[in-house]
Design goal:
By secondary structure, this protein is of the alpha+beta class. Among the domains are: 164 residues, Sandwich (Jelly Rolls), CATH 2.60.120; 268 residues, 3-Layer(aba) Sandwich (Rossmann fold). 16% of the residues lie in helices and 38% in strands. The strands form eleven sheets. Strands 41-44-46-45-47-48-49-50 form an eight-stranded mixed β-sheet, with helices on both faces.
Amino acid sequence: MTKPKFYLILCCALICQTMLAQQTITLKKLYSTGRFYDVENPVMIDSVNLKGNKFDNKDILESFISFPDQKSFIEELKPDLSNYFFVSKPQKGARFHLLSFRLNADKYAKTNIRITAPSMFEAYINGNKEASKTSIEDTLLSSKTIKLNFSATPGTYTVLIKYMSLASNKSPEGIKVTIEPEDKKSTVNYTFDNGGKRNITIQDILDGERVTSTSISPNGQYILLNYTTTKSDGKTFSSKELLYLKTNKRIALSTGNKYEWMPTSNKLYYTDNASGEVKLIVVDPETMVEQVIASNIPTGDFQIAPNEQYLIYADREVADTPKGDLILLTTPESRQPNNQDRYFLSRYDLSTGLKQRLTFGRHSTNLNDISQDSRYLLYSVTEYTPTVRPFFQTSMYRLEVQTLAVDTLWTNEGFANSASFSPDGNSILIVGSAEAFNGIGQNIKEGQTANSYNNLAFIMDIASRKVEALGRDFKPSINKSYWNAVDGFIYFSVTDKDYERIYKYDPKQKQFSLVPLNEDVIRSISFANSNPAAAYFGVSASNSTRAYALDLKSQRSTLVADPYKDRLNSLNLGKVEDWSFTASDGTTIDGRYYLPPNFDPAKKYPMIVYYYGGTMPTPRTMEAPYPSNVYAALGYVVYVLQPSGTTGYGQEFAARHVNAWGKRTADDIIEGTKKFVAEHSFVNGSKIGCIGASYGGFMTMYLQTQTDLFAAAISHAGISSLASYWGEGFWGYTYSSGASANSYPWNNPELYVGQSPLFQADKVKTPILLLHGTEDTNVPIGESIQMYTALKILGKPVEFIQVKGENHGIRDYKKRIEWNNSIYAWFAKWLQDDSSWWNSMYPKQD
């Protein structure tokens, strides 16, 4: 008989505990810095101030105190039986005490913090003053209460009380604090601490200091580091430093100067026009002595030749602005700003001061490279060809600088993107897609069209014009290349599955090999030109930017900058695990998943599925526009997958993107989601959301016409009608030259209508949130407008948020936070059955 009673009592206790968790909570721990600040009344020169007011204790309360960080609050105060925390009084005058606690909220809740005390105080939340008490009572029983009311989104809040005890007050100096949700039905859980790790928030994605560039000196002994810091008010600041690798000596550089390395001599340079004329100034990194090497040089952007004897300028010729209210478009490209402007090359000789124009005409010329001996330039001319896919054809030329003799390397090639000289100048290294040079690098199935966004490398022998494709079976997609004169290897920055890595290619052995670096996503790498050394920086799935020096011989990386370290160490991140599945046709589809912090495998968690679903894979970066770590911190399992059509998995896999528009990609996403749920018991299969942007936004819309698997969906800047996007977006028809190769609304209406979510809107059952910037020129906002209109007419659950003044991505700091909070609130409404956050942001209208 006792056992059932025990269980009944236990169950009742648990129910009461759950109910009480949402009632008023009285604070049991408060922390002090262990010191106090005594303040005397000022010398009274006059009895009143300029406004006629007498001096008052409120004037003392406003005394400025520089608040220390949270780790300085080391002394724990304990309350008495009436829940008051007591602090000391001064012998005379006033005494300040700094008191603090951290409040964690796991859900959105309008929150009330009540502070009761007999003396004056100021109360701050996350450094912002929220309230002041300026009355004084002479007993604890008569103490007045000040209420702090704020909307707590999931996260951590530091509450600081600047308490002023008075020698003249008869009452003991006690403080009592209670916390409660405004809505008594709220299921929010509050916890308290004084430091330690906290869950990541969107502010952590936006705020803090990060590396933005690294560049190594020609001799490999110095690294130039650039940083950007974003404050909690959205303001950004830049800083620069010079690192001497041998001694680890660091020198702060002026933020007003744009420093770069001279090509050969081991010196920095920058330009200065403070005197009214542009000066070219070099800096010796060893002594930091500056020297003006050229005065009154032309304005504009330039590249210094390797022999450091001349500059190549990219000068801009501005087209006449059309007059009147009627504008005649000459091409579809004419809609884009400055599209009619042209660029040409000029050479400025540093010894003579003569600037000579090198190219002229109606077509722009683009500098690709300067040969190591500075004898030749490699430049390209691009011609717009609206009747020939991919609508732009590029010709490449080698120009002898002294004689201006031109050597044509190739003409009218639509799929070669960039070129550079080999160290000896006898070959050209080219990056382009598989269709370049008559498809000599193609490795796809019969009937497929190569994905023009999946890049290969080629080498052209200048003398014979013979072009060789490097590694038809090499699966990563090449982004950038560098032919290193020191060791003879070609280094490629590539998209390799959901990593961005560095590979090196041995031209003699014709082999690729991975360079083992310390980050998942390498943002940039630079090479010394006289030593086997490099510098790079990158990020990973669970950390921010870190910079390294690299010894190319040993392939050993040395950490040189980790500005986000302290902030990262304060964050409690969940685990990130790889997970792949075998699709119905036998293809392996890669992915990864993020677990909530303090994950409990016995629980059932809602899940968010994220995909780009277009050309590029979703990289392993912590600070993404759609940050998986933050979703996980909000209590979701996050599944990210790389469906068919993604680059970085080989030509055949990438080619599945072309003329598909969801056909195969949707199957992968649906099948992968179902298999993930089946294999992971901790996922609540009835509470799955999905989100995507751009092509991924299209995928979100399209998926809801194919399945009712999802309980909530979000499409940011998505495409609802392939035909309208193709014709209206600035890059609609040019992007479609790859995604819809040789298919147009008139010759393939089955694709343009059949794969457009708009034409299947009646099949949508899932509540869907549409997000779009009002100034989006890539995917015009009409794509969301027409889908919203259709779903409203059909009586489907849909909401539409327009972000004023934003383009394809949301850049403004304040808007990014509001936009992200809208995403979190939408998922909370449908996946956590809590609509309070959404309703607070978007109250129901009668």
